[in-house]
Amino acid sequence: MAAQNNAPLPDGLDIAGYRIVKKIASGGFSIVYLAYDSEGNAVAIKEYLPSALALRQPGELVPVVAKPHLAVFRIGLKCFFEEGRALARIVHPNVVRVLNFFRAHDTVYMVMAYESGHSLQEHIARAAAKGSRPGEQFVRQVFTGVCAGLREVHANKLLHLDLKPANIYLRLDASPLLLDFGAARQTLHSDAPMLAPMYTPGFAAPELSTRGASLGPWTDIYSLGAAMLACMSCSTPQSVEARRAGDKLLEQLDKLVGRYSPELIDLVQACLALDPLARPQSVFAIQKALQAAPAKPLAAPSASVAAKAALQGEARGGWRGLVDRLGAIGRGQG
Ligand SMILES: Nc1ncnc2c1ncn2[C@@H]1O[C@H](COP(=O)(O)OP(=O)(O)O)[C@@H](O)[C@H]1O
Ligand SMILES: [Mg+2]
């Protein structure tokens, strides 16, 4: 199935009591619009429109779904609807607020509170373009909020399954917000193989590509580690396949020594364990670790390689010990 470029709904269109202002983003499964409700509040409307299955020509409203794709399109539609329904139960400052969903144009729309800001992905790209990178305090503060949102998601028996900087949105005050639970549909339905989300290499845990492996909070915890690493290294982490062929994680983490505290580096390493049982077992434990002050002040970024190596040897207590400590903190908590 070749992906097609779908025409967005026209600006100014009235739909189910909302007025479309403009398209703000489009991806493989959906188009997101800025719109206003009848009281003039800004909302973001996400339209289910998988480009591999449905085609909408400019000037049309209803997409054309070729007969062979119809059954899969409908399963996806149902899952999108259920994703919205599950998300609508969650009211948390770090999870996007779903306000409504409705059917129109033979598809489904999810209405969310509109948030001004930009994705963490954009933030990282801007930092990289300036030759800098997000600081320790920023990483700790953003991911503490991400953990708070994720705990609420897990408490509602949902998994995110596509956690990555592009799906973490930063409001103007830098408070984070989890977006895009598209992959969560996997936990609701396993009967839609053709719509199985394309997990993002570099952020997807190994169990996502292992037939019969059990998924759980530990699966999101791997992605959390990968997202922190992406932030700290300003690059996309290696995919699981690439790690299995030649793991460069330790090498990458060593480059962060001196710039970030040993505790933070160890935490990232623990989250990125290929063995799910070797990862911190609860998001609560990670949140606690992010909120704890590092034991020693950071070495100056200009420290010599030798000094960095000494710091690393002395201060990095080893990730196994850290996992044990985190396990003790987090046992029995959501
Ligand atoms: N509630 C929202 N408020 C503001 N912008 C949003 C909102 N939801 C999504 N967006 C914008 O749309 C983009 C894509 O949203 P996302 O839910 O990740 O969809 P996709 O499935 O296309 O990745 C986001 O990066 C963000 O720029
Ligand atoms: Mg997304």
From TrEMBL:
Keyword ATP-binding (UniProt): yes
Any GO molecular function: ATP binding
Residues annotated as domain Protein kinase: 18-299
Which keywords belong to this entry? Answer: ATP-binding, Kinase, Nucleotide-binding, Serine/threonine-protein kinase, Transferase
According to the lineage, what is the superkingdom? Bacteria
Pfam families the UniProt entry points to: Pkinase
What is the name of the protein in this document? Serine/threonine protein kinase
